From TrEMBL:
Needed co-factor(s): Zn(2+)
Keywords, comma-separated and alphabetical: Hydrolase, Metal-binding, Zinc
Metallo-beta-lactamase domain segment(s): 13-185
One GO molecular-function entry: hydroxyacylglutathione hydrolase activity
Pfam families to which the protein is assigned, alphabetical: Lactamase_B (PF00753)
Gene label: gloC_23
Gene3D superfamilies from the UniProt entry: Ribonuclease Z/Hydroxyacylglutathione hydrolase-like
Protein name, per record: Hydroxyacylglutathione hydrolase GloC
Amino acid sequence: MENFRVIPVGMLAVNCYLVLDEAAERLFVVDPGDDADLIVAAAREMPHREAVILLTHAHVDHIGAVPEVARALKVKTVWLAPGDVPMYGSPSNNLLPYLAAVAGLPPTVSEWPWRDPELLSTPGHSRGGSCFYFRSRKILLSGDTLFAGSVGRTDFPGGDFALLEQGIREKILTLPDEVKVYPGHGPATTVGAERRNNPYLV
């Protein structure tokens, strides 16, 4: 049975990830940014008793489908770091002129009860930027913190390049080389490849 899916969604091709914890029958839906119908259809092909939404940050392109996905999958837990909560429901959270703020968002929680994935706090792209490390699978979902050959923008409100770089160096580049990095946009990479080749980090 497939237990990991990548679904590019929306006009900015945000990578939404579905990660199934088969033992717990729990499905993690990470960054459902748009195209709720695609996400829900894929989720229903991955048998689970509980669905949880995890948000790497609250920029509108990563949260656009949260209301629809939460309703369709009967999600009770939407996790978001406290630093991004003010932006999450803000009517000014439109990021770019052609992206509207999201209405009808469910409330979020900030407690982290799971052992796998592990929460890595990596602010810099936004105040509450976060990564999720599935140690058992050697998979890191890096949101807009780290990309293949690049790093997240820091020119949006709450951006801070020094914080971003610190988080990447202390939290991500200390992971094993073979850990696969799945970013919020674009192709996957590895920790080792970014340590050696990323022009923002070498």
